[in-house]
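INTERNAL AUDIT FORM
Audit reference: QA-55
Scope: verify that the stored structure record matches its stored sequence.
Auditor: D.O.
Record contents follow.
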Amino acid sequence: MIYSTYTDRIKNIVSQNQQRQIINKANKDGSDLADISNNRKQQILEQINFSNKIQLNAGQPLSNILHPTVLQNANIGQHNDFKHLKGTDQTEMHYIVSVFIDIAGSTNLHRGYDLEEIFQITNTIQSAAIHTCLSVGGQIQRLQGDGVFAYFGGKNITKKAATEQALIACSMFTYFVKNDLKEVFLGDEIEDIKTRIGIDFGDDNEVMWATFGLMNVSELTTLSLHTSLASKMQAHANENGIVVGQNIKDLLQSDEDFFDLVRNAAGEVTKRYIYEDKKKGIHYTQYRFEWYRYLKSLPFIGCDRDGNLFLLTKDMQNEVRLNNLRKTASLINSGNAYTNTSGSISEDVTGIKNQPHRFHYE
């Protein structure tokens, strides 16, 4: 499991905490654990025995997915392509994808855990977010409480590729929080730890890189409306949700089903525009990003019958690719194929019907 290092660490903390509480309760009641019946002992064991339903499974640690040495070479607030600006008065204009990951619910841990345990749990979750971003090509800019602010992009990667990296990293981490952590705290009378994420893209003419601050009290970072909007968007995300700006949607150039306006539980649009400047005619839209649907669409992600996701091996990916080609060929041969605006072929009649082609050779 790619997150097993982190889930196992938290499981151990939660398990020890539950054992301590059981012992304390036994002592408070004036009983002795040695006198507890075998049935009660079995119940206690079941309470502290976690299931293994964490399904984003790769059979390898997260660090081996893309960049095995990513942690050793990483530095906070030191983007490799702009670190030459650190400590200077120089500025540079260059695009970037800004990501703000907020981890919510850690306050509830105070109800059942001591400070050392809370530190271990929250630091482990934050470490998982850092590791995910780094492994998918991101750069960690700063840590804000138990949240993470990261950049994706640089001088040697296309804008669309950087956007895809950010969406993949954030989708994977959200899956981890929504599923893996829920299993860890299941039955522990602790409200779920959740995440809210905001992502936005600023183009070359919209992002200034510079050193802000004085001498050693300074930071190499960006000045951009879209950097600021990323953190604002996470505040409009649902629990375990991701909100992105219009620029992200435009860059992805993908299925419209991945995006929807930000709505409340009743389905009503709550805040369509995250930023408006009526004088300049700017009405910048934010969207809820359907991260689970996006993950399922990726060529290296598989889904079992229960909806659990897992990473495909290269052989499995190739077999999936061949099966998809066979299905498409069969659909075209049936005469019921339609091409939609993104170039995908399906039976959706709202697209353009594929015309039969007849080639004649002399």
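Auditor finding: record pair retrieved intact. The longest helix spans residues 159-185.
Action required: none
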